[in-house]
Amino acid sequence: MTRKLRMGMIGGGLDGFIGGVHRIAAFIDGKIDFVCGALSVDPEKATESGKALFLQPDRIYTDYVDMIQKEAQLPEGVRMDFVSIVTPNFLHFGPAKLALESGFDVVVDKPMTISVAEAKELQDIIQRTGRTLALTHTYSGYPMVKQAKAMVKEGHFGKIRKIVVEYPQGWLARLTEKELSSGAEWRSDPTKSGKSLVMGDIGTHAAHLAEYVSGLRITDLCADLTTFVEGRSMDDDGSVLLRFTEGAKGVLMASQISAGEENAVRIRIYGEKGGLEWANEDPNNLIIKMLDQPRQIYRTGNAYAAPYTLSSFATYNTRIPSGHPEGLLEAFANIYRNFAETVSAKREGQTPTDEQLDFPNVHDGVRGMQFIDTVVQSHASNEKWTKFEG
Amino acid sequence: MTRKLRMGMIGGGLDGFIGGVHRIAAFIDGKIDFVCGALSVDPEKATESGKALFLQPDRIYTDYVDMIQKEAQLPEGVRMDFVSIVTPNFLHFGPAKLALESGFDVVVDKPMTISVAEAKELQDIIQRTGRTLALTHTYSGYPMVKQAKAMVKEGHFGKIRKIVVEYPQGWLARLTEKELSSGAEWRSDPTKSGKSLVMGDIGTHAAHLAEYVSGLRITDLCADLTTFVEGRSMDDDGSVLLRFTEGAKGVLMASQISAGEENAVRIRIYGEKGGLEWANEDPNNLIIKMLDQPRQIYRTGNAYAAPYTLSSFATYNTRIPSGHPEGLLEAFANIYRNFAETVSAKREGQTPTDEQLDFPNVHDGVRGMQFIDTVVQSHASNEKWTKFEG
Amino acid sequence: MTRKLRMGMIGGGLDGFIGGVHRIAAFIDGKIDFVCGALSVDPEKATESGKALFLQPDRIYTDYVDMIQKEAQLPEGVRMDFVSIVTPNFLHFGPAKLALESGFDVVVDKPMTISVAEAKELQDIIQRTGRTLALTHTYSGYPMVKQAKAMVKEGHFGKIRKIVVEYPQGWLARLTEKELSSGAEWRSDPTKSGKSLVMGDIGTHAAHLAEYVSGLRITDLCADLTTFVEGRSMDDDGSVLLRFTEGAKGVLMASQISAGEENAVRIRIYGEKGGLEWANEDPNNLIIKMLDQPRQIYRTGNAYAAPYTLSSFATYNTRIPSGHPEGLLEAFANIYRNFAETVSAKREGQTPTDEQLDFPNVHDGVRGMQFIDTVVQSHASNEKWTKFEG
Amino acid sequence: MTRKLRMGMIGGGLDGFIGGVHRIAAFIDGKIDFVCGALSVDPEKATESGKALFLQPDRIYTDYVDMIQKEAQLPEGVRMDFVSIVTPNFLHFGPAKLALESGFDVVVDKPMTISVAEAKELQDIIQRTGRTLALTHTYSGYPMVKQAKAMVKEGHFGKIRKIVVEYPQGWLARLTEKELSSGAEWRSDPTKSGKSLVMGDIGTHAAHLAEYVSGLRITDLCADLTTFVEGRSMDDDGSVLLRFTEGAKGVLMASQISAGEENAVRIRIYGEKGGLEWANEDPNNLIIKMLDQPRQIYRTGNAYAAPYTLSSFATYNTRIPSGHPEGLLEAFANIYRNFAETVSAKREGQTPTDEQLDFPNVHDGVRGMQFIDTVVQSHASNEKWTKFEG
């Protein structure tokens, strides 16, 4: 990169949580400047938040359309390069479409939209414009997840047979949406959240992780969704039997009523020769279990000798030496950093490397929306298996 | 107990593995004498094994019918009190029936039989004779599993919503049945093993554990069974969506092709107020996750003060002080010890305590066979849900 | 073994704890019969305990001298083969000496005696009589401790540089000796316990473990002992800097006031090429950390392929398949089993194998007493280093 | 803060490692702009690094004196506010002194200087000028370390008795200083590193952590230092017995030859009522072990209800929700953020809060240098105890 990229943000006022995560992820490597924002639909909050975040007054906007149009008219060396969209789900599509069509690249929180139709339209725009879109499926940003993917790809475990992926949380074990402005309110409103609460909010993370690491794709599924908490208008728990390409099978569990759990994302994959295990709450350990061998724990940031050498994808996404834990913010930042380098390379007429291109994109976004649709359809059906049309 | 009980054993020659486990479990507390055995269908092996195990030559039998009949004719102070049946599944029913009808109590390895019909016949005999049968669902013998059950029962977690129980193993990731006399051979022969390999061998353990700890019963299920290893004649992996009484839901996974796993039994239960987690490979820790509280780890053998006092069921089944790990053999021995004390009490005209009666019995055996049947039926069906008729 | 060995027990009445552990350890493998006992100095308790443990009335003794003399006069096929001595420390020497001199072999709890002089006298008797004595330094009985020793010995870690061994407990964080008949009373009485409470009770375990695994011997030490609990008459905490043969160094910590700890024995050894870590509270995992390689976890009971094959010492002392945890009782039982096989072999004119001979013996007992002496001497000295005269 | 602070950096060229850590720590919260640097003593490296880090060409300096003098002459709204000093130890004092005396605040890597005299001079300058200095003892920046400190302070554990703090690493198990430009070279040169390699590089971290969490101060110590690796000119391992104020005792271990260890900082503190345990490699768990209670695990970012409510110091230093791991970079960033807020508050005439003031300062730096001195003095002495004159 010959210069820092300039970021505008849509959503992410100081009363929310996810905006701050995106900002940290953008700031951490010193390669992105935060130059403008339409940080809230509430003009007062937008202004206050912009000031508190040290934006120049004339680049604090109260409306995303206004921001995109005005920024587009600023001189090239000044105007933002991309927008980061951190609004509730139903407000992803509009800003993303307008930004892409106005010549800006886009980072958008997951799920990408609230319908497959919207997702496909974004995909079409990308195809047409050649712009870049990053989707923040955080867990794929971890070095040890990338190491897992690399080892599966190189055949370390042989043919993959079984995938178990789970995302238990407990924060919706109570009717949180009435209690506090926690983000639970809009999430449990289908017009704002999409067809499934649990699958939109966390199930797509799990599905993406399973496909990302295994390199396989879900072909059929059988889902059971539940609303456990009385008074809630959407599902808060779901279990899904999975069938994958190449004969693999699996189970996906996503739950927001697993009281006492925090963000216990975990994936286990078993092949003919061995298995792997990775967990978000202990993200610097990748547990490898080969037949006839002691268990191995690959740890972030190590300069192992061959044949244990960590994959270039793992090392490219690691910032500090082994034993010094990196966490979710660094995984998140890897998506931003790789996106920024890809955008820079493309703008400077270069070809991004495979490592730079390694972030979730618009196709992952489409697939996520299809996953939600298929799960909801399966849940409503008495047939055991529903085809995943992807 | 005013005297030791005398045990005969059917199966359990020195070439197998499970007989040794049963013997250790019987010996450990010094309350059971091993007096006779029909240890193998091969007379030579039976004799050799009997000698090596220090049986008196005249009480080494080569045939279980012979043993039961001869022992029945010995004087009361000499003859065996109960038999322990550790043969392959298809050889459980015959010896159990004959023993019970000959006035002996019975310990039998799981699954209890190879069909629901056999299981129900044993249930009838028990009902008729008043004899005692213990089924070695080992995991329910652990103190921290008993603590978990007690806490669920006392309402510590509120109404139960979600149960995830799993038993991944890797030992059948290869076609072990052709390679060595590992017990894989008869296990993968449906005439000897029953309708399902994976569910008979380990799935019933998981199902029993889920019902034992939660106090709920499975009402409906949706199963997907797979044979992953080429050349194997029975299933080696299964995933099941569960519905329980009182509106709880769950997932059961049993797998013998999870390469690299050993015996990673694990159960997680979530209620309205919190959740619990227990794992066989770390059995002295019971992880309690309550809403709004730090996680707690209840550990075997502690004299916690109120309100943390360990349940009488946990302490009754613990032999040594905290920090000194007890393992599977002690859990197994708890079944034997409680069975022996129950049998002694009944024979001496006393009422066994609730703690003594706390071991898997013939009803659990029937339920296990029904579970296998229902899973197999569900797997064959295109309907999503199959009723568990129990 | 062509027949079971017959055990008598001195101490171990039902009001104590350690007797039960010894009995389980003796019973578990079905190779030892418990035939007589002088279970308490209180005749009533001795009798009650003997009955409850199903001893024949005429072999319940109330005095160890009486027991040893009477048993010696019983016919060879009846009389006990060995005694297990589980009395307070000051009552180890007398029974051990008399038993050995009367032709019986001996198992004795640690520390072997209450003085170096006593210990050396037992060593002399052993030398003279050829009898066998086992000392129950439990932790050396674990399969993964034996694996660690084997790997050090074969040079897996290169030259050893650093050894950290620790045994923190919390049970004496309060003045327990006044509160209950917990064994704290005699332990904190120097006439019954020996020169150091913390070093006698647990420090010798740690010292033995360090020397057992490393194959090195302590040559110099620098100790700081403390009595933290007001009203206690002996030390309850000690930290020791160590120097070993071959230039290795180390630290030993033994503490009974580490409130909240249970029996957190842990050893770490570092050589030129890598390190190992093992902990009593997670005893089936041996963590291996080699330079330039992922961490490895060797687990009990696995049939690893070369070059990972578990040592014969590890496998010989394992009873059940991997993933099924074994615990302290099995480690303890390994000492009994190996002792019994050694005694049998010697009595039958055979040479015990190296695996059978692998239990702590009278020389370890002498060394333990010397360790206590040296620590106490160092504590009293202003010199930094005190020579370990062993 | 009404505006971002402007940072200059001394040292930290792209060929090193620690500069990058400081920059991430400074950038992560978007409150600090990186405006100038003298990034290397090699002018070419300085220039290249400055460009790569997007500094304006006229603020890329090749000499720290030049930088400080020129920046001091820039207008108030432009010139840097503070310098971050990330040079080898022997180059801390000069830049720090000049910066402070030129009106700039200072962040400096540890150990603060290479002698007690230098450290005390900085302390005097601070006293005289009222400037602010932050010392990057990273581990005290973790939320769960702050929670531990808060719980000790509020008396949760009663009077503190025992402190065990350790920092084992393995990266100097080989003669790394000859092999690569790893920072091992200057670290093992006493003229650049100070009196002790192991104590300067990591021992001071451990000593600071022990005093920070316990609130106690070391009064006496007994040290053993070793150079294990042939050809190395400084110590690479040290073990120290400690005595603290109020009668507490402890052990400190710092080792760079613990082959296979990464950065396994760990602290355990035991009081009359219970103990705590925290480890850098699992930093979001604070293990609490109270007498008579199940273990508790306090985890970063939780909104526990009373009486478990996390301390304001823990929550103030947490960025994301529970279950999403934060790591070393966030701990490091907490020092920068708190320093920046303190500096801003003081410059704006406000009183910083206790939370903002919670970062290691010049007094900690002096104490660190005294610790190194005392350890080296003790090592050279035959007396058991050496007074810590602090």
UniProtKB/TrEMBL annotation, chains A, B, C, D:
Signal peptide: none annotated. The lineage of its organism: Bacteria, Pseudomonadati, Bacteroidota, Sphingobacteriia, Sphingobacteriales. This is Oxidoreductase. Residues 145-277 form the GFO/IDH/MocA-like oxidoreductase domain. GO terms for molecular function: nucleotide binding. Residues 6-136 form the Gfo/Idh/MocA-like oxidoreductase N-terminal domain. It comes from Sphingobacterium corticibacter.
